[in-house]
Structure formats: structure tokens, C-alpha cells
Amino acid sequence: MFSGCVGAALCVVALLMCVYLTCVAVHRDRVTVDRGVNTEILLYELMLCGLLFLAGVALALDAPLWLKCLAAALLLPGVILAGFILAHAFDRPAPDAEYIVVLGMALEKNRPTRDLLMRLDAAAGYAAADRGATLVVTGGNGGDGAESESAVMRRLLAARGVAEGRILTEDEAVDTDGNFANLRDMVGGAASVAVVTSRYHMARALGIARGAGFTSVTGLSAPCDPLMLPANVMWEIVCLIDGLLRRTVRLL
Fold it and tell me: Can you state the angle between helices 202-211 and 229-251, rounded to 10 degrees?
């Protein structure tokens, strides 16, 4: 009886998530530049929802024990990765970081998203408390002659009282891996870095920074838009699974 109720609930959640994620993808296609990436994101997210639905069906029906165990095993990696994301959702940085690295994100009709504005607020607050740190804004996405993410971020940080002389710009990379690779070339891997990004993105961002060669890196987790949180967490789980699979393939 209990497994049947849990399975039915999982099926309903999976169907609702499919509708929600599709609506988010349609919205992003309308307001952001890189539509191909949004389509790819939706495909992987719907695949995860499909696994969740199948697990729910196995639990809801009077399936054999081995099938129920398989369904639970399908859910386990997602649960573990969600816990990993949550573990870094409220990180606070070392007080003496040399560089405050504010990670960018796709603009919506050339305007910053709510999440990006909250990252900038967090960075400006930290910069006010640590006058010696240099800020680095990242992100080269723009398109059609529009401003890059980093150019918009630099202007908004200046409007928040951060002296422009304290702000460096990394405006070539289009993803987090490229941001940290370019940043390493700019400041060196031994630099003390405080990464500012949204709560759902912090766990993966710190892993990428360390993988790029930074030996002293901490995080400053910024609040995020609650309406977009489920979609963003789902995408982070997809990216973490993809990273684990790629590393496994390289080791084989």
C-alpha cells in the first residue's frame, strides 16, 4: 500500500515536472540567445523525468521485488546529487580572498535575470567588506551586437558602488569551464578565489574551479529565483551526471 502511494505520487510529480520544464524551455527560447542549448537541456531533463515516471510505475504496481529495487536504484543517484548540491547551497567564502569571481549567466532580452542580479548584490556586499579584493566578472555570451554578460555585470557592479578600477573582465568564455580556464591564465592557479554564484550552481562551480587548477577556492552562495529553482537544480543534476560519465569514460 505504501509503495503504491509513493509510486503514484512519483508519477504525478514526473508529469507535472515535464509540463513545468517545457514551459521554462519555451520561455528561455523566447528571451535568450542560444536556443540550441535550451533544447538540449530540455531533452536531458525530460529523460530524467521519464526515469522518475518509470520508477513510479514500478512502485505503484504490484511489481516483483527486484523491479522495485531497480526503480529505487534509478532514483538514488539523483537523490545523492541533489544532496551534494544542497550541501554547498549556503557556502560562505574565506575572508581574505584576493579575487571575487562573479559567474555570469545568460541574459534575457539583453537584460540580467533575477538570479544574476542577486549574484551581483552578493558580490557587491562582499566587496564592501573586503576593500582589498579584486572583482572578476565573467561571461562572453551576447549575440547580435548585444552587450556580453560580463559587460552588463561590470556596469551593474559600478552602479552598486564598486569602483571600476577594482573590476576585471573575462569576456571570452561561454560556459563555466571556459570561465575558470581563462581566469587561471589571467591570475594564476595559486590565487585565493571566492566564487560568487547561485546556490544551485555552487557545488559544480567549485568542482570546475578546482579541476581548472585553483588550489585556494571558496564559495559565496547567492540567493536564487524560487520559481526557476526546480528547473535549475534539474539541470545541475544533468550536468553532474554528464561530468561523472565523462570522467569514467576517460579512466576506462
Answer: 30
pLDDT by residue, tens only, the chain of 252 residues: 777 888 899 999 999 999 999 999 888 877 776 555 667 788 889 999 998 998 888 888 877 888 878 877 888 888 899 999 999 999 999 888 999 999 999 888 888 999 999 999 999 999 988 778 999 999 887 655 578 899 999 999 999 999 999 999 999 988 899 999 999 999 999 999 999 999 999 999 999 999 999 999 999 999 999 999 999 999 999 889 888 888 888 776
Residue 58 to residue 155: CA distance in whole angstroms: 53
Nearest to 127 by CA among 29, 194, 207: 194
In angstroms, the Cα distances linking 207 to 32, 187, 201 are 26, 18, 10
CA distance 245 to 119: 30
Q: How far is CA 76 from CA 14, 52, 62, 73, in A?
A: 16, 11, 21, 5
